[in-house]
Design brief:
Helices cover 55% and strands 9% of the residues. The protein is built from 31 helices and 13 strands. Strands 9-12-13-11-10 form a five-stranded mixed sheet. A four-stranded parallel sheet has the order 6-5-7-8, covered by helices on one side. A two-stranded antiparallel sheet has the order 1-2. It is globular, with a radius of gyration of 30 Å.
Length: 702
């Protein structure tokens, strides 16, 4: 069978909805005749092995799947590989893997037997095999009576095997790695290793991409195999790594469950590997997250202005794009597998791509590495998704979207879905996380890849989302409606103090006049509700990203502060947080030092600056302190000077402050609100203005 036939078999085994020849033809972008030929080949294998056949309807008709088809799945896939004849290039790779993985000498006869070729064929290939291995820093040594063996460091052997077996998108989606099929260089139960990695990923708040998750599993299985056959690493250089404890705890559990001896060299070697892994969102690797978020804020403003579309108020866009940029700059450039799909998306959005490119200097002001063409295109995908989102509202059906193609592509797919269906998206996750989906977390799942061990019904669609995909999702929704399978549940916002407050607030302001009296009533209600739910303002950060008025209360605001210059303003915005125990003095010094090093990047809007430092530089607790200067000072940004408002931010991570940060930036970009802050008589009035601003935001989103 060919690769397409293999995928057809896998899709047939998992698909629960009606599937047709026409649907497959559109999915693979081939003719119906081609699909019918693939199906005939599948039926031939089934018939040979006395299994029930697929019933193929006429025209673009329905494919009826026999009851025992799942039992035939392994047979079909095995048949595919048993009948597969290796090419010379594939023979070379398999032979090389056999030699490198061997703990002792291996004979030419053994290699020939494994490859199912003659000894003469192996001899003819031997020169190429040796050259292939030599390029990886290893040497093949021949012995007349014993055969072949490898000379070279164990770390180079493992790297060789890893690179040979590194999973590709194609491997993941439907085909097997040919080398892996013919030689077992991996050990340990894959499902156990995946579970161990997933648990430690959650424990250490690492967020791995699907490709990174698969790569780590491969690395660990090679490690287990090599250690079990008695091949241990040479001494490794010890380097300071934020991943040391992450690596240590993974390997400790691996040693326990996989019956393998783990050495200190294994830990250091694993650390070095993890340091190069791509994370979706990793606090340890995103030491400049705050700077990147500020860049993102400015970048969104600039593209909004050029496109003539206001994307500044889209919090999801801000969060997703900042996370995406953090991911880009946290690791070396990588080749994205979905370039063709991205190109397809951007065919009708060339104007967006042009604007994205035009505004790249904003990013390059703070990041020296130039973005690759595909990285730039993925940014454009995020922008397209934000534009699509402006046309849609949050809607009833609860859906989880699973996509291996990256968060930007996932979001764009979601917006395409929303054109046709009324969805409320619960989450957008990677494929390996699907095993953790709870039964009551959504109505169903939409995935770009087949899923294993998923507790919910799911529909497989293509990233491009064609008409067949539309019908498939529609059938799932109809089935849910007809079965009345939608569970009764509370609105998500109704289970927390914040959710209840958000529901009550507009009612109070509608019923009570004047607004000052309503403000007083709301303050009392918030106190009572939080007490009832045992949630304090200080605990809001543990539950949600706190709003701006949670972090800027009257006591956190000063007016008419006298400052001599920008450094004095920065220090006076930070010193109150030192006194309250939110930050150490070193944090204030670090803020000043960072501005001197990078320039006044903390100037975020006309007349406004937000100084900050890194967590490890003395931050203790999430907090803000806002000062309005008696006389504005110059920071050195022509279009933004002089600066009247300075807000010191104490960060404890790169996430919890995002909502407050986002709202403050948007407020200070609004000329009307900036004027209100300028004219306010005292700290209490500024606190009320901030709270009123966020109340107005809540009205917009009701």
């Amino acid at each position: 069978m060919n690769q397409r036939s293999t995928k057809i078999v896998q899709l047939l085994s998992r698909e629960k909805d009606e599937i047709t020849v026409a649907g497959f033809a559109e999915y693979f972008d081939v003719s119906q005749k081609t699909i019918r030929n693939d199906l005939k080949e599948i039926n031939h294998i089934l018939k040979t092995n006395k299994r029930q056949l697929l019933d193929i309807g006429s025209g673009g008709g329905t494919i009826s799947i026999p009851k025992d088809f799942r039992e035939s799945l392994s047979l079909l896939l095995e048949e595919n590989f048993n009948n597969y004849r290796l090419s010379k290039e594939e023979r070379k790779k398999v032979a090389a893997a056999l030699i490198v993985n061997s703990a002792d000498y291996i004979t030419l006869a053994s290699i020939a037997d494994r490859l199912q070729v003659s000894r003469a064929t192996v001899i003819n290939d031997l020169k190429d095999i040796k050259l292939f291995i030599k390029k990886k820093g290893l040497t093949v040594v021949s012995h007349a009576n014993k055969g072949l063996r490898i000379e070279g460091a164990e770390s180079k052997r493992r790297k060789f095997l890893y690179e040979l077996l590194k999973p590709t998108v194609q491997d993941y989606e439907n085909s097997k790695n040919v080398v892996a099929w013919h030689i077992n260089v991996q050990a340990g139960d894959q499902s156990i290793i995946q579970k161990i990695l997933s648990e430690q990923e959650c424990r250490y708040k690492r967020s791995l991409s699907d490709s990174s998750f698969r790569e780590i599993v491969l690395f660990l299985r090679i490690l287990i195999n090599r250690n079990q056959i008695g091949e241990f690493l040479e001494n490794q250089i010890e380097k300071n790594s934020d991943n040391y404890m992450f690596a240590l705890d993974i390997l400790k559990v691996i040693a326990q469950y996989c019956d393998v001896t783990i050495t200190e060299n294994d830990i250091h070697y694993f650390c070095a590997f993890l340091d190069e892994i791509r994370y979706v969102n990793n606090e340890a690797f995103n030491k400049h997250a705050m700077i990147i978020q500020m860049i993102t804020r400015e970048y969104i403003t600039n593209i909004s202005n050029e496109l003539g579309i206001n994307l500044n108020e889209d919090y999801d866009f801000f969060e997703n794009l900042s996370n995406h940029l953090e991911s880009i700059f946290s690791a070396p450039p990588m080749d994205y597998p979905e370039a063709d799909i991205v190109n397809e998306v951007l065919e009708d959005n060339q104007d967006v791509l042009e604007v994205v490119i035009n505004q790249l200097p904003t990013i390059y002001k703070f990041q020296h590495r130039k973005l690759t063409d595909i990285e730039i295109k993925y940014i454009a995908v995020h922008v397209c998704a934000a534009i699509e989102r402006k046309k849609n509202k949050e809607v009833p059906f609860r859906v989880i979207l699973v996509c291996h193609a990256g968060i930007g592509t996932s979001i764009l797919l979601l917006e395409k879905l929303k054109r046709h269906f009324k969805f409320r998206v619960v989450d957008v996750i990677s494929a390996h996380e699907a095993m953790n989906i709870k039964q009551d977390s959504a109505d169903f799942v939409i995935s770009t890849v087949p899923l294993e061990n998923c507790s919910l019904e799911y529909v497989v669609v293509s990233v491009a989302f064609n008409d067949t995909d539309y019908i498939r999702v529609g059938n799932r929704i109809d089935a849910l409606r007809n079965s009345r399978a939608l569970p009764d549940r509370l609105d998500d916002d109704g289970i927390s103090a914040r959710g209840l407050i958000d529901k009550i607030t507009p009612v109070i302001y509608d019923l009570i006049e004047p607004k000052e009296k309503a403000n007083g009533v709301m303050r009392e209600l918030r106190s009572v509700i939080r007490h009832y739910f045992k949630q304090s303002i200080e605990n809001d950060a543990d539950i949600i990203s706190p709003s701006l008025h949670h972090l800027l209360r009257t006591s956190d605001i000063e007016v008419d502060v006298k400052c001599t210059d920008w450094e004095d303003a920065v220090r006076k915005s930070g010193n109150p947080l030192v006194e309250k125990g939110y930050i150490e003095q070193s944090y204030v010094d670090a803020m000043v030092g960072s501005i001197k090093k990078y320039g006044p990047y903390i100037v975020l809007a006309k007349g406004f600056a937000m100084p900050h430092a890194e967590v490890e530089e003395g931050s203790i607790r999430l907090g803000m302190h806002f000062i309005r200067l008696k006389e504005p000072v110059v920071f050195g940004i022509k279009d933004a000077d002089p600066i009247e408002f300075v807000c010191c931010l104490s960060v404890i991570d790169h996430k919890s402050y995002l909502k407050a940060f986002f709202n403050l930036i948007n407020m200070l970009r609004d000329d009307e609100y900036r004027q209100h802050l300028h004219e306010a008589k005292d700290s209490e009035e500024i606190a009320r203005i901030i709270e009123q601003y966020e109340y107005n935001l809540s009205l917009i989103h009701i």
